[in-house]
Amino acid sequence: MSNELMYEKKTDKAIITINRPEVYNCISPAGWKELGDMFQIAENDKDVRVVIITGAGDKAFCSGADLKKTIPLLLGNQRNDELEGNINHAMMKFNPISKPIIAAINGVCLAGGTELLLATDIRLASDHAVFGLPEPNWSIMAAGGSLARLIRQIPYCLAMEVLITGRKLTALEAESMGLINKVVPREELMTEVEKYANLIISNGPIAVQATKSAVIELQNVPLNEAYEKEWEFSALAFRSDDALEGINAFKEKRKPKFQGL
Fold this sequence. Notes:
By secondary structure, the protein is an alpha/beta fold. The chain has 2 domains: 5-201, 2-enoyl-CoA Hydratase, Chain A, domain 1 (Alpha-Beta Complex); 205-252. Helices cover 46% and strands 16% of the residues. The strands form 2 sheets. The protein has a 6-stranded mixed beta sheet, sandwiched between helices. It starts with a strand and ends in a 9-residue tail after the last helix.
């Protein structure tokens, strides 16, 4: 792996850091594939219960693609299948992972950074963070998932405001839109992220991961079909050893010891 991204495992957490602070943590064409690979490494590691993604330094989470290297690959009449595939891989468009992903937004979060944000599950931002999809300012489009995801995550008129004005949003504006969960002082960001991660880790991993998988799959299924399918997902949890342990712990008034079985 390159130095562009860092992967660190801390017991039951995987921490992915975009490591190009000198260029506001923008990502090169090859870096997108590496980022997607890291998400899959976390998914396939049975010990990892939560993934945390952030940026190096205190200025930026991710400012998107490295435009000097990326735009020349996209302009013209021919599609660049390799680049599109790498970005799709990083944005988990067709390969979502079941492990919960927490974004620690420690500064600028623009363009592909905001699109990456939309692929995460819980989003905490420092009070100096800035968000937006400025692509229309240069007559290009955000196609890293935001055209499909944003309208499903916040109200239509707010999604269109973000998509077609290109204006930057403050952390408080992003919070009021429902784009992020919470704004905290920059010095408290990682402490707050750890609190959320530990809350998730204290729960049964089978139930947590099946819940995320169900939500991703059922959001585009007709309602009556979704009602039927949610029982299929819940059966994964109800039939597990962890479910029995959870109920016994509840009855015995003790903390459960989940094994992921």
